[in-house]
Amino acid sequence: MDPENPMADLLAQAQQMQQQLMVVQNEIASTQITGTAGGGLVSVTGNGVGEITGISIDPKVVDPDDVETLQDLVLGALTDLAGKREALTEEKMGPLTGGLGGGLPGLG
Question: Coiled-coil intervals in this record (predicted)?
């Protein structure tokens, strides 16, 4: 710390935090996450920023007479994926944003 120029110290700390946030944001964006439902019969894969990159449906849950169950499983897998994405963001961003009073827009 420079006792003669506390503003310069504050600016340096802010720049360091911004760089750390950018590294963590890139890490979150590149992380692949999979949400599942029905014991893995349906899985949805995405990244940490909300993009869906893949979906897998086991053929044994494809029943033309029971489309509702398949829809519920897909919705369940998407919900699971969203929860895992939120947990990842909290895990990665928490140490950096803990004292800032909340998360950053667009990351939750």
Answer: 7-34
